[in-house]
Amino acid sequence: MAEKSGADILVQCLVDLGVEVVFGYPGGAVLPIYDALYNHPTIKHVLVRHEQGATHMAEGYARSTGKPGVVLVTSGPGATNAVTGITDALLDSIPMIVITGQVPTQLIGTDAFQEADTVGITRHCSKHNYLVKDPAKLAGIVHEAFHIATTGRPGPVVVDIPKNVQIATAPFIKPGPVQHASYRPQVKADAAGIDAAVEMLAAAERPILYTGGGVINSGPRATELLRELAAMTGSPVTSTLMGLGAFPATSDQWVGMLGMHGTYEANWAMNQADLIIAIGARFDDRVTGRLDAFAPNSRKVHIDIDRSSINKIIDVDVAVVADVASALEDMIALWKQRGHEKSDLSAWWDRIDGWRTKKSLSYPEDGKEIMPQRAIADLYQATRATGKDVIITTEVGQHQMWAAQHFGFDEPNKWLTSGGLGTMGYGFPAAIGAQMGNPDSLTICIAGDASIQMNIQEMGTATQYRLPVKIFILNNEYMGMVRQWQELTYESRYSNSYSDSLPDFVKLGEAYGWTGIRIEGPDDLEAGIRRMIETPGPVIVDCRVAKLSNCFPMIPSGAAHTDMLLDPRQIEGVMSDEAKALV
Amino acid sequence: MHIQEELSQRHVLSLTVSNEAGMLARIAGLFTARGYNIDSLTVADITPDHGVSRITIVTNGPPKVIDQIIAQLDRLVSVHKVTDLTEAGPFVERELALVKVAGTGEDRIEALRLADVFRAKVVDTTIESFIFEITGTTEKVDNFVALMRQIGLVEVGRTGVVGLIRGKEPV
Ligand SMILES: Cc1ncc(C[n+]2csc(CCOP(=O)(O)OP(=O)(O)O)c2C)c(N)n1
């Protein structure tokens, strides 16, 4: 049989697995693979400017297309630079395959040039990882890596390939479907859990559907079924940061995001519900607030493909270990089979409407400065008016929360944000990755003046591949979220949270061949946004917003859902040590 | 502010795992990363092709944490099966210890007498010392070592616990 080099086997596997784009950066330990990719007819390689950028691009590509993202980096510093993105993908359950070069097998363990213990370093920040020591095993491992990354609870898988394994040859047979000895995620729920969930839902007087990123990971079918379940039951729907878009924000049943910066109505509805159906959400500390006060009088059903998410933080009454789409399908079928009717939830909705009148997302405006919330709301209106497919990514901070609150999402895979790890520097590369996967979409990164500087070097990547991404910076000259916490907790001692020595973002854009736009005040806002949307090619917008605005509502760390702060006058400036100790 | 701790229970977990490089690091690292306790951990391959190992872990924690430990172990790609022997029903657990004791005269005789009571075997001897081999539950080994300490304990080596469910079925 004809033999192939490890590098050729790898590239053949990528082709066989349907890979169209690889985000990467070359170096000594991956030169054989780069040579195999040279002028490749079907695989496009996107050359990044920093390996962290490659990982977030792969995440953005994956989250917006539903396909796994693929990263290729060299050994040592290439691999260590990828670690943040790998961890980010683990916490947000993003399917990603990271191929790292390694020093040749005979040099492993000798502190060779550019040697790092990549499998050791990534062991606990990846879903799984491999060191491939034999080219004959490479094809099987690559197929297995894709299988593991994309099934069950998705996540990043690292494949570390020593340079001599890339060069050595082995017979190549295209692997068949993966038959794994131990990895078999449970996709279909046990009947008893479905039965209990349906009966509890039929009997509930104050139900709420609490949805998360798992709905989006499960795929488009899950989103359709969620809408069907909501319509059948008439129940209110809330979502985590990661789940936005799974249920339309324009629906009457939508009560907004819940959690630390969620709406008053979402958090109160969670607190007062008699039944919470958690769907692909994991009761994160940003969502629950103080645990002993979390939804005290409710029964809880938890649908999750990862058994370890169940009863990790909050004890539930019914555990449904399954893929979201499969579980919802079963629930809907049983609901119909039992002939359940929509209950009269009008008393429950009356209470929810009462909480809605608080208008918890409102904000003061004096007309002199641009309120950041206004900028987002205007951006939402203007982009919607274009009728284009719009993808929003964010960096991390206040702007991220304002975007979640004031930009409405009606479809899944259009909202890309770093929820679990909260990685500043995620949003801009994620936008590049999303644009690669969705060339015709209007892709906008909503950024803060500090976060954008974390991976700003990727402007060159967008220029090189002619990707018309837009960066919309809410420039408050502060690490706003840090400043807000200092205002709340440390009597406004703004230790190191001022963004000093900011670059001129317009000139910086121009230096990279972008269009730069500055929006100075409320009078420029509408025109500036329009110009950004209408300008072909990449655009960076420096939108000067009110410097000291705070993000409300807010449940301070360690407080209950019912102790939300709604406006700045409630800030005391001091906190107990117990509260300070919480993140 | 003070840090609060919860009441712990001892559990013996039995895992079958693929016998591959880094497997032990995966398991041990999971325990450190998530702040779980390991009292003892043993590992050896158990199939003729050396493909599968059994790992026995003695851990302790509140019930909710034990449940999490099992779920977290179970979700590792190369873990085949996790069984909580403590929950699964009556089981046998054993560990082996080598116990070196030095002494002369009456102490020597007393050491031998106690070893006999504990069914410990003498596996090495000099005029002034013994090495005893003892197998049993952790508690039995602890008791034996405690008695030897009063006589002239030099040092101890212990294997950690292995365990199997009683009866004819596998775990
Ligand atoms: C890599 C990284 N480092 C530090 C933090 C902590 N952090 C969270 S928000 C924030 C400030 C973000 O400032 P900016 O990007 O200007 O956004 P704003 O809050 O002002 O909207 C910081 C430093 C983080 N999330 N990620």
Structural notes for this entry:
The complex is a heterodimer of chains A (583) and B (171). Chain A is of the alpha/beta class. Chain A is built from 22 helices and 20 strands. In chain A, α15 (372-385) runs parallel beside α21. The model of chain A has no long low-confidence stretch (mean pLDDT 97). Chain B folds into two domains: 9-88, Alpha-Beta Plaits; 93-164, Alpha-Beta Plaits (2-Layer Sandwich). Chain B contains five helices and nine strands, in the order βαββαβαβαββαββ. In chain B, strands 5, 6, 7, 8 and 9 form a five-stranded antiparallel beta sheet that branches. In chain B, strands 2-3-1-4 form a four-stranded antiparallel beta sheet. The longest helix of chain B is centred in the last third of the chain and has 14 residues, at 138-151.
Lay out the secondary structure.
The complex is a heterodimer of chains A (583) and B (171).
Chain A: E1 3-5, H1 6-16, E2 21-24, H2 31-37, E3 44-47, H3 51-65, E4 69-73, H4 77-91, E5 96-102, H5 118-122, E6 128-131, H6 135-150, E7 156-162, H7 163-167, E8 169-171, H8 191-203, E9 207-211, H9 213-218, H10 220-233, E10 237-239, E11 254-257, H11 264-272, E12 275-279, H12 285-288, E13 299-304, E14 318-321, H13 324-337, H14 346-356, H15 372-385, E15 390-394, H16 398-406, E16 415-416, H17 427-437, E17 442-448, H18 459-464, E18 470-475, H19 480-489, H20 505-511, E19 515-519, H21 522-534, E20 539-544, H22 577-581
Parallel strand pairs in A: 2-3, 2-4, 4-5, 5-7, 6-7, 9-10, 9-12, 10-11, 12-13, 13-14, 15-16, 15-17, 17-18, 18-20, 19-20
Antiparallel strand pairs in A: 1-8
Chain B: E1 9-18, H1 23-33, E2 40-45, E3 52-61, H2 63-74, E4 79-84, H3 85-88, E5 91-102, H4 106-117, E6 121-126, E7 129-136, H5 138-151, E8 153-158, E9 162-165
Antiparallel strand pairs in B: 1-3, 1-4, 2-3, 5-7, 5-8, 5-9, 6-7
The structure holds thiamine diphosphate.
